[in-house]
Known about the structure:
Number of domains of chain B: 2
Mean pLDDT of chain B: 86
Shape of chain B: globular
Strand content of chain A: 5-15%
Helix content of chain B: 55-70%
Largest interface: A-B, 62 and 54 residues
CATH topology of the largest domain in chain A: Rossmann fold
Oligomer: heterodimer
Low-confidence stretches of chain A: 291-295
Number of helices of chain B: 8
Structural class of chain A: alpha/beta
Order of helices and strands of chain A: EHEHEHHEHHEHEHHEHHEHH
Largest sheet of chain B: none
Shape of chain A: globular
Order of helices and strands of chain B: HHHHHHHH
Radius of gyration of chain B: 18 Å
Amino acid sequence: xxxxxxxxxxxxxxxxxxxxxxxxxxxxxxxxxxxxxxxxxxxxxxxxxxxxxxxxxxxxxxxxxxxxxxxxxxxxxxxxxxxxxxxxxxxxxxxxxxxxxxxxxxxxxxxxxxxxxxxxxxxxxxxxxxxxxxxxxxxxxxxxxxxxxxxxxxxxxxxxxxxxxxxxxxxxxxxxxxxxxxxxxxxxxxxxxxxxxxxxxxxxxxxxxxxxxxxxxxxxxxxxxxxxxxxxxxxxxxxxxxxxxxxxxxxxxxxxxxxxxxxxxxxxxxxxxxxxxxxxxxxxxxxxxxxxxxx
Amino acid sequence: xxxxxxxxxxxxxxxxxxxxxxxxxxxxxxxxxxxxxxxxxxxxxxxxxxxxxxxxxxxxxxxxxxxxxxxxxxxxxxxxxxxxxxxxxxxxxxxxxxxxxxxxxxxxxxxxxxxxxxxxxxxxxxxxx
Lengths: 295, 129
């Protein structure tokens, strides 16, 4: 299957390992991710939207117009982009006043968007199109030592009229995936709680507290690993974990993997190809995998 | 009342997680409401603590320059250069990211940057500069 791939800005910098691991497992599963040529920032959830709403919608719409020419579904690795692009589709469909202004802005550069693009999260592509059966057939290493707390956060499942990957209160699809890989699922109260998102930049102490609660609830429920589906959530839970530990004087040391890295490990793909060396909480030191399986 | 709402810090600590909007039995989207209030506060120049709204302003500036977000540039713009503790703290995070190869030093840029000025002009939202 072929998809119009929307990489997201941070996926090519702070979360490079997310893109690398997604591409590595796509190869195994015969998924072709064709990057949208000259894609631009989606405007982020509210970063541009709160400042210039119309401009922000036009930004996102340009990506949709580019993808429409490719005649494929848009696939993104980032839950926030999944939300932002899907919201744009909804607004353009329901608000004719905004649509005509955005059409004019797009038209000034020769673009045209007819509203025919379906926006999807990569996790949905794997679970709905590829299917658990095919994933199971490709598993070479059963991850039996891992107790995985799947983290859904906000935009995989909320708001449900825009992001409907799973049930907004009790999602389970990532947990089913985790079990398919031979690992055990961990149920915990933080699975759909917000990590603090961009408050990490504007109001750090609030974000650190929010992410701490999620990490500790996963750990206290018996997790020895977390799996995320969003680069921003991953950044707050992994790259900021050291800051959380020093601020609250707690030892957490919980490995947080992108869910694509977890699948890659089960497929027997080299850890380096999955970018495991880029994770800030070292999986080598904190993951109970068989000796030699993680570089 | 209007001034009280628009100059409050409450509207800036909403993380836009949509939990309250999802649970509201009357389908009130508080999240969208918060975003609209922020926009109104910026337009009417009623943001009490300027630092909170700077994130949105600088994010927009970086994206409008390159078409994509360049995280290091946004963070440097936001740094309070007079606060030594904050500088030290951010330097430590920056170093951690650099060691892991997570800092993209060169700014990414789309080819069609001219279009950005175009949409800015076409969507010009009065007074939100």
